[in-house]
Amino acid sequence: MGTLINAAAIIIATLIGVIFKKGLPERMQKGVMVALGLGLTALSLGWFLKDFFTIDNGDLFTSDDLLIIISLVIGVMVGEWIDIEGRLNNWAEGIEKKYNLPPLAKGFIAATLIFCVGAMAIVGSIQDGISGDITTLLIKSALDFVTAMILASVLGIGVIFSAISVLIYQGAITVLAMFGAELMTPEIIRSLSMVGNILLIGIGINFMELKRIKVANMLPALLVPIIYHVILIIF
Known about the structure:
Blueprint: H1 2-21, H2 26-52, E1 53-56, E2 59-62, H3 65-82, H4 84-99, H5 105-116, H6 119-131, H7 135-155, H8 162-180, H9 186-207, H10 223-234
Antiparallel strand pairs: 1-2
């Protein structure tokens, strides 16, 4: 139920944002994107550091240093080999041409990554699957509503298709939590969150147009911590 509410919030917010887009001059649209990128980078960095650093008896320690680097390297190698971003762009552009729609790819990819790559999407979906508690997903829905509205006001109607990504991604985690809750340990969630927040920093950099990073091609990095921790649990 929580994921359905989340997807509905994104759809409604996108439609509202598209209406606002018509009244925003190009200069203002670029300013909004830079502001959104700066805010997303700062927040994601803070979330990452919260999980990365731990304090024990007054001493500061770091967590999963090597795992994070290995995850990113393996993830980008697999992603570049598959060319996830290129395939997503081709899919979106195919829909654009078939139905004579405005550009969709940038809004779809950016919104999908923002809404799916993050601790709240993972934790909230797990809580929904294990106990039916949708509190976290309701909070995420409210945040996604505002974000989707801002994104759609700049990037257009493509943002609405990210609702499909949310349904598939969060729905899959919820089902997994229902039947395999013991596998979703705090260690897996923490590692996933750290890698996910690094990807969000990449999106923020893209929004600010500091450097073009193919963040979608880094998505397989999210699978590496899961595989690593599952192997540890089994053996």
